[in-house]
Design goal:
The chain is α+β, with helices and mostly antiparallel strands. It has four helices and five strands, in the order βββββαααα. The longest helix has 30 residues. It comes from Novosphingobium rhizovicinum.
Length: 148
């Protein structure tokens, strides 16, 4: 049994259907369903990076089990892209956990791994952004392109 408490106006997706709470609401789920709180849902236009695309496709596999095969193909392609840009030991650990959860069709647990990958990606993008800002200001680079 799963008990969910919702604030007034908060959304929840249950098996693909979007519901909105009117007043403080408590829902008790007594069988197996796909449930996501509104704050966990990502719109297609928000999937702007490889890790965010991985999250979006995994979310779709979770809320739309009928389209599973197509979703899994998109998940595999997105995972390839994520690993191409996030070649760090931390990302590899989260990707391995993610792959295990997807193989067991535990998409909700895989979403947790995606959130971790999104944090790794955000940190990397921030690091790259500050490095390029330093280069524009004439600051010394990290030495990676000093051999050029």
């Amino acid at each position: 049994m799963l008990r969910i408490s919702l604030r007034d106006g908060e959304k929840v997706v249950v098996n693909g259907a979007v519901m909105r709470a009117v007043g403080r609401t408590e829902i008790v789920v007594e069988n197996k369903v796909s449930v996501m709180r509104g704050r966990e849902v990502m719109a297609p236009e928000e999937a702007t990076t490889p890790a965010r695309q991985l999250y979006f496709h995994t979310m779709m596999a979770y809320v739309d089990p009928a389209g599973g095969e197509g979703h899994q193909d998109r998940i595999l392609e997105a995972l390839r892209q994520v690993m191409a840009v996030l070649a760090t030991p931390e990302a590899a650990t989260h990707a391995l956990s993610f792959g295990q959860h997807v193989a067991q069709l535990q998409f909700y647990k895989a979403l947790r791994d995606c959130r971790q990958l999104m944090q790794v990606e955000a940190a990397l993008l921030e690091e790259q952004g500050s490095a390029s800002a330093e280069e524009k200001q004439g600051a010394p680079s990290s030495g990676l392109d000093a051999a050029a």
